[in-house]
Amino acid sequence: MRDARGNSTMIVSMIRRSAFGLSMSLVLGASLPALASDAHSQPKPPLQQWSFAGAFGRYDAAQLKRGFKVYKEVCSSCHSIHRLAFRNLAEKGGPEFSEAEAKALAESYKIKDGPNDTGEYFERPGRLSDHLPPPFPNEQAARAAFSGAYPPDMSVLAKARGFSRGFPQFLADALPGFSYQEHGVDYIVALLNGYEDAPGGVELPAGQYYNAYMPGHRIGMPPPLSDGAVTYDDGAPQTLDQYSKDVSAFLMWTAEPHLDARKEIGLRVVLFLIVLSTLVYFTKRKIWEKAH
Fold first, then answer.
1. What architecture does CATH give domain 61-84+131-257?
2. Is 221 labelled as part of a ligand binding site?
3. Which residue windows are transmembrane per the record (predicted)?
4. Residue 292 among known ligand-binding residues
5. Measured between alpha carbons, how far is 1 from 237 in angstroms, rounded to an integer?
6. pLDDT tens-digit profile of 200-246?
7. pLDDT (tens digit, 9 = 90+) per residue, 146-200?
8. Is 131 annotated as a binding residue?
9. Cα separations in angstroms, 244 against 48, 49, 191, 258
10. Domain extents in the chain
11. Is 183 a known ligand-binding residue?
12. Torsions phi, psi of 219, nearest 5?
């Protein structure tokens, strides 16, 4: 009797599991076309060529200077970079402004400081040790200026944004030394160039813009850049495409300012290990040669 009851209980359990699996298959099967449609309508950002890509890549100081100019003249009116200090602009591996240039830039800003001896706050010229001041005094003021939306801080934006490259590229991304690290800057370039007129049948709420690379294709930020918006002093093209690449490279540097030093140390370690392995190999041969 106990065996019969046990068998019947097992059969009922198997039937329930089968029914659950069938129902989940039907649900997932019904949702797959919608997911495929969403993936199809969301284009992947084009892969760009970056000077800092790969094991031997390095930042282009001239490009970083141009990118900082784009940020300063356009992006800084809405977005902060709270991790960036004026002294960082003169450090090796970055835009490499001279110390005098960085100091003059800092002094062009008014920094709120205090309290003084009388307990009052005051404004003073910036110093190299100061961080770039934000465009708004607090988050509430920023949201009030943009109808509740909060412009994100750009300090690590290039590392916080990204996309999946799909098959078969994602296989290489899983291998040490072969992973693609430039998803974020590729996405930013695509986003800045992705503003389009909304296709027929698509209605956007007031204050929203159509962008091919924005998830959902709706973005509250108006197109920030256009040809001729920023004047370059080094003869570089003054186009939307160039602006977007320069400011994206600058944002990559703010997110990973020690990339050049890290890669240099990594190459030195690899060379050291090669030399060490060679010495160990020949030492082992010499020792075992005498042993035999």
1. Orthogonal Bundle (1.10)
2. yes
3. 265-283
4. no
5. 87
6. 888 898 889 999 999 999 999 999 999 999 999 999 999 999 999 99
7. 888 899 999 999 998 877 777 677 676 666 666 778 999 999 999 999 999 999 8
8. no
9. 11, 13, 9, 22
10. 61-84+131-257
11. no
12. -140, 140
